[in-house]
Amino acid sequence: MRATQLYAPTLRESPAEAELVSHKLMYRAGLIRKAAGGLYSYLPLGWRTMKKIMQIIREEMDAKGGQELMMPIVQPAEMWQESGRWAVYGDEMMRLKDRHGRAFALGPTHEEMITTLIRDEVRSYKQLPLMLYQIQNKYRDEIRPRFGLMRSREFVMKDLYSFDRDVDGMNISYDKMYDAYSKVFTRCGLKFRAVEADNGAIGGGHSHEFTVLAPSGESSIAYCEACNFAASDEKAELKLIHADAEELLPLKKVSTPACHTIELVKNFLRVPIEKTIKAVAFMDDAERLILAFVRGDHEVNEIKVMNCVEGANHLYMADEKLITAAGSVAGFMSPIGIDKAIIVIDQSVMEMSNAVAGANEIDAHFVNVTPKRDFDAKKIIVADIRMVQVGDPCPHCGAPLKMTRGIEVGQVFTLGKKYSEALHATFLDEDGATKTFEMGCYGIGVGRTMAAAIEQNNDADGIIWPRAIAPFEVVVVPVNAKDDTQLAFAEKIYDELLAAGVDVLLDDRKERAGVKFKDCDLIGYPLRVTVSPKTLAGGNVEIKIRRSGEFMNFARSECVEKILDLLKNL
User: Fold this and answer.
1) Which of 165, 160, 141, 163 is nearest to 152 (CA)?
2) What's the predicted TM-score (pTM) here?
3) In this structure, what CATH number is given to the domain that contains residue 412?
4) What is the domain range of residue 309?
5) Is 67 exposed, middle or buried (0-12, 13-18, 19+ CB in 10 A)?
6) Cα separation, 425 vs 422, whole angstroms
7) What is the per-residue pLDDT for 15?
8) Is residue 359 part of a domain?
9) Residues near 5 by Cβ (< 8 Å), separated by ≥ 6?
């Protein structure tokens, strides 16, 4: 490819709404352009990288026995109604009707579609296992699309679905995909961790997120340096905190005027914060009041709370009228004496004694609260519902946990029979008995992977691409393309690199050298080969390694061989 034929409109300034480095650099380097909020066009350079990521994904999926297909983006509502998700998926689903009034959705995911397909086609255990995947656009109406390709309304995803005859087979498929994902992100040149994760709206059994480590990441990750444990903050299971034994004092109500926060309560009563019980009030789609209680120095994990309450698909902050109707008061809530609410208590709260909790009336708290004595065990749900924090003991080995941030680029799930049972997808085993498929699903965000690579690989001058996913591996730059001798010399190197199988660009634009060099650094080509009057006079070429900034000079006769050697290590 010649730069004079390439559509690559670079910019010196970032768009005003861009916050993340990747969003700014993708815009400035001419990789993407915004069509509307959360909707982007991929320009040639960006699409070249996307295609390279997709090719790596295809190779690793195929190596594990995956077969590529393509399913409709527009999905009939009947499938989702049959699975039970049409009513509960939420406002993220983009819904539409055809001219006959039939309801459809733009696919946010394809569990229903693939399960229906297999249900109608696969009859025997002899056809199993099956792993089918596609690379296709997905649509989710994000309430606040932001960060460029990180959170958009339309995005490219690889989604693979596995079908097995039993749990052992499903776990084998899961392990295959876990290994394939590790290879995909390693080949893309990314630093990542696979962390235990919540299944979210997909449902099913256990799950891992593949997370690219980056300070700008939306995901918060707890990890242990003493063992291999890592989990998202939504998922991290925490050890029970046992309180020191002490003499139990009688429950008593005290006046706490205007003390509607934990900080005010602890200061007014002069008690340590770990002796207080914090309340957070939620409501679900059915407007049920859900009261969650954790220790005062802890935070409530909304995902864990939702997973504790049967039928809760989304949680919102509770309306104050709902709290009042249940017989309590915002800022003074307690499990004691509440009947019209679902009450979820963190397991460590149940170990407390002589603690402070709200009295369900304004300006009043209970002191000397001992939950095992004072809470009605028949009316509460006890579970781990708190957020992990730095220093918590690792659930595997007990060492202090650390926290970092990351960008989720892929996730693997075991689904079990969640969709196959709902959609009546069955097969016959060797004895002629009807069995239900055991399923798994596995997704990679292709655009997010590109953006995450930039978040991890950049400097003040622009992008620093890992070789495997760079739009071009090498750029050949004649300093003065108006000089026929320089241009001819550069073209010969370009032709030789093409013949050697290198993905190379010739920057034959009649621009100033400084402009071309800035574009090379901004776009992030791994190697730059420069032809100038100085190199011509010496019969050599200058090579710049983008990642290190190092310059090298090689004889013209050996430059192609040296470039091939350098590329092997990038």
Assistant:
1) 141
2) 0.86
3) 3.30.930.10
4) 252-383
5) exposed
6) 8
7) 85
8) yes
9) none
